[in-house]
Amino acid sequence: MAAILRASLLNQTEFERLSQPLRHAVFVQEQGIDAAIESDGKDAECRHYGLWYNERFVATARVSTGGKLGRMAVERTFRRQGLGAALVRQIIELEKSSGTPVIYLHAQAGAIEFYRTLGFTDKGERFIEAGIEHQAMKIVLNH
Q1: How buried is 134 (Cβ within 10 angstroms: 0-12 exposed, 13-18 middle, 19+ buried)?
Q2: How big is the chain by its Cα radius of gyration, in Å?
Q3: pLDDT of the chain, 143 residues: tens digit per residue
Q4: What is d(CA 137, CA 69) in angstroms, rounded to the nearest whole number?
Q5: Which Pfam family, any one, appears in the UniProt record (predicted)?
Q6: Which residues neighbour 52 within 8 Å (Cβ) at sequence distance 6 or greater?
Q7: Do the strands 127-129 and 132-140 form a parallel or antiparallel pair, or are they unpaired?
């Protein structure tokens, strides 16, 4: 039987119950980022997205009102299977249909090629954020 993928905008309950624990596991526990940095107080002004794989919540990301994609996290056992790409593609389509002109992000060095394959282009020089090398990137959705 084929896997069933479902991506959608999260409501507040789904965000608190599903997205926050996954982000904590990935950023704080795995990557060692300070919890105060991960929980930056900007969640209330963002749209939160999630991806389910056969009814299991496996990936999340947020987009700010200004179009910044961030806090992209995929459950460890589901990485490198195209699920993060599926979520980003769906986010691009949903944001495009809602009129967002550009999505930009700060990609961790290890994820730059991932975002390039999805159509994002580099913007400026690499920099350090939360102790990790990053690259600013963007994709134009609506001209």
Answers
A1: middle
A2: 14
A3: 677 888 888 988 888 888 888 998 988 888 888 787 777 778 889 999 999 999 899 999 999 988 999 989 999 998 988 999 999 999 999 999 999 999 999 999 999 999 999 999 999 999 998 888 999 999 999 76
A4: 10
A5: Acetyltransf_10
A6: 4, 5, 6, 7, 58
A7: antiparallel
**What is the DSSP-derived secondary structure letter of residue 52?**
E
pTM of the model: 0.87
What's the token pair of residue 119?
A: 């159509």
Place of tokens 């940095």: 37
| Phi, then psi, of 85 in degrees rounded to 5 | -65, -40
Instruction: Dig out the tokens for 103 from the structure.
Output: 């999505």
Tokens of 120: 């994002």
Domains and CATH numbers, the chain: 5-140 (3.40.630.30)
Which of these, 59, 47, 79, 62, lies nearest to 6 by C-alpha position? Answer: 59
